[in-house]
């Protein structure tokens, strides 16, 4: 395998380079520094290369797997995030080099060799984190690099006038809550291509899913694992871009409140099917997309006088009522239908009620 040979080659070169630096010190400790036949660059390099080659035999596979995971992670990220992350990492490394220049000329190996590497690793990591965790602010500073489709409004002379985000009411981020991932319909909606922008999953939502998946109650475990499966499929597919938000609001304890704060901070839209959260977000002037409302809007219209065939499965709340369900889950209440329980009957629609939780149809039995 080519990857195996590359990894082992890196081990050989690294082992030889380290041996050239360290073996003279070891020979000096054992009073062998004056033995030219052993204390020379070629022998030291060969000994180090052999030692590290032996180390590469058990280690190359875990390293190859780690590289593969890194490749998968990078492939799922947006080009802007990779660009900003690379630039900020490079800036961190340059600052580290400037800081450690005086140390590189010292005789102490720890100060001249080890400390600069540690400083470069730390500042490079901090640079990457600062660049990638504030990606939305970079989008605002670098609008030409965001890749957004700008809408054009022709004026009276026929010239194109670019509209701003406020004018087009465009929201780049669609924030997913815990319930919408457990529900799973967001995956089917993403497949249709109707979802624009980027789906954003905050870390605290992921942690809540993990907590539910590890719960002692079997029903909760199933729901939590379903949410994690939906999230993984969204990330692995190319239906719509998916990003993780790694920040948190430590001063807020409730996940719903954190979601609302995040939507306000990044001017995003909250996607949910939670009835109470839907009401709270509207009260706080945060835009929300409710999957239940969308499903209700897409159901076929039922007019008074229409005939429906439905199986009555249980008693209603009022006397002599019976309840059945259409194929799409719509509840049908049949007046005087209790005597037809567990039978398929024809109902004439008398009225319909649309609520945020769903639709209810009322009718009378006209034919068994």
Give a summary of the structure in a few sentences:
The protein contains 13 helices and twelve strands. It has 368 residues and is an alpha/beta fold.
Rounded to the nearest angstrom, the distance between the terminal CA atoms is 71 Å
The helix content is: 40-55%
Order of helices and strands: HHHHHEEHEHHEHHEHEHEHEEEEE
Return the average pLDDT rounded to an integer: 79
Quick one: biggest sheet? Answer: 5 strands, parallel
Q: Which structural class do the helices and strands define?
A: alpha/beta
Q: Please compute the radius of gyration using only Cα atoms.
A: 32 Å
Q: What is the beta-strand fraction?
A: 15-25%
Low-confidence stretches: 144-169
- Secondary structure tally, helices: 13
Name the overall outline: elongated
Instruction: Count structural domains.
Output: 3
Largest beta sheet: what is the strand line-up? 5-4-3-6-7
Q: Would you count the extended β strands for me? A: 12
Task: Please write out the topology.
Blueprint: H1 2-29, H2 41-76, H3 79-100, H4 109-132, H5 135-141, E1 152-154, E2 160-162, H6 165-168, E3 173-176, H7 178-183, H8 185-192, E4 198-202, H9 203-213, H10 218-236, E5 242-245, H11 255-266, E6 269-272, H12 275-283, E7 288-290, H13 291-298, E8 307-315, E9 322-325, E10 331-335, E11 344-355, E12 358-367
Parallel strand pairs: 3-4, 3-6, 4-5, 6-7, 10-12
Antiparallel strand pairs: 1-2, 8-9, 8-11, 9-10, 11-12
Helix pairs in contact: 1-2, 3-4, 9-10
């Amino acid at each position: 395998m080519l990857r195996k040979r590359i990894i082992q080659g890196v081990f050989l070169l690294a082992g030889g380079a380290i041996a050239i630096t360290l073996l003279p010190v070891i020979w000096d400790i054992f009073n062998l520094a004056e033995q030219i036949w052993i204390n020379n660059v070629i022998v030291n390099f060969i000994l180090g290369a052999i030692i590290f080659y032996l180390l590469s035999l058990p280690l190359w596979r875990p390293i190859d797997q780690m590289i593969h995971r890194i490749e998968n992670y990078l492939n799922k990220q947006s080009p802007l995030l990779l660009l900003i992350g690379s630039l900020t990492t490079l800036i961190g490394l340059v600052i580290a080099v400037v800081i450690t220049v005086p140390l590189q000329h010292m005789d102490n190996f720890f100060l001249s060799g080890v400390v600069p590497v540690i400083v470069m690793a730390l500042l490079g990591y901090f640079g990457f984190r600062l660049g990638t965790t504030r990606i939305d602010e970079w989008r605002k500073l670098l609008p030409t690099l965001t890749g957004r489709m700008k809408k054009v409004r022709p004026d009276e002379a026929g010239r194109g006038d670019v509209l701003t985000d406020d004018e087009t009411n465009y929201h780049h981020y669609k924030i997913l809550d815990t319930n919408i991932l457990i529900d799973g319909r967001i995956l089917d909606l993403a497949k249709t291509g109707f979802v624009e922008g980027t789906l954003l999953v905050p870390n605290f939502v992921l942690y809540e899913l993990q907590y539910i998946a590890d719960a002692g109650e079997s029903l909760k475990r199933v729901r939590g694992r379903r949410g994690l499966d939906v999230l993984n499929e969204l990330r692995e597919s190319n239906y719509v871009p998916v990003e993780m938000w790694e920040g948190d609001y430590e001063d807020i304890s409730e996940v719903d409140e954190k979601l609302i704060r995040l939507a306000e901070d990044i001017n995003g839209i909250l996607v949910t099917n939670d009835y109470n959260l839907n009401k709270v977000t509207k009260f706080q002037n945060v835009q929300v997309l409710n999957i239940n409302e969308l499903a209700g809007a897409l159901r076929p219209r039922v007019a008074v006088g229409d005939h429906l065939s439905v199986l009555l499965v249980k008693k209603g709340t009022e006397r002599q009522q019976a309840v059945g369900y259409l194929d799409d889950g719509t509840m049908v209440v049949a007046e005087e239908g209790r005597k037809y329980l567990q039978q398929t009957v024809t109902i004439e629609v008398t009225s319909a009620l649309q609520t945020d939780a769903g639709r209810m149809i009322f009718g009378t039995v006209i034919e068994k």
